[in-house]
Amino acid sequence: MGDYVSVGSLTAYLATGRANGPGMLLLPMITGIGEQIRDWADELAARGITALTWDPFHRRSTDNSTVDELHELLLQMDDDAALAEQTQLLDHLLGDLGAAKAGVAGWCLGGRFAILLGARDHRLANVTAFHPTVPAELRPNQTHDAIADAAAITAPVLVSYPGADAAVPVADFEALQTSLQSRPTGATVALFHPGADHGFTNRDRHDKPVNADAYQLAWPQALAFIDTTTA
Question: Which of 1, 37, 70, 150 has most Cβ atoms within 10 angstroms of its Cβ?
Fold first, then answer.
């Protein structure tokens, strides 16, 4: 089981794998460091992978806030400030925590930031993005275009997209694929889940069979991808 730690002025959730083994930086969905992201971190640690989780809302999560409250905080989030926090955590993962290699995995808003971080930090061994929130039209508080920036990623990328994503039109996912597949280096693995909803990995949505089925396919694929790229 992991625990909360301080990394400079930041709070993070740390689940420790084997010494000097691989690491993963986890970037949560709207739930923040809620129960499910902690469970994923603990699962990775049980596989020997040290998992360090970014706290997007600074001690706010579904543990103590409603999703509507967290969404209001999301609308105030600054891209560059968030990327600076993620870079600080990656520095810690590769430095003080001794990870030999490290990748990044993100969900929804975290999937978008995984792409943005991967485009900027070529130390990353992989970029894994579940239903990344990357519509072509940016919000007023967003300054970086993840679809365009994806072309700068040098690491292998796995992106898992739900065909009924209400937040990201299929055309925007296709534009993301085109951007990723234009890269001169770094494999692209794209999973398309017909009928699945945005946020299908969230177990609160697994009462809908198409979401549960998509998760049952996508999560093992991601684990194998992470194992291979961080070995």
Answer: 150
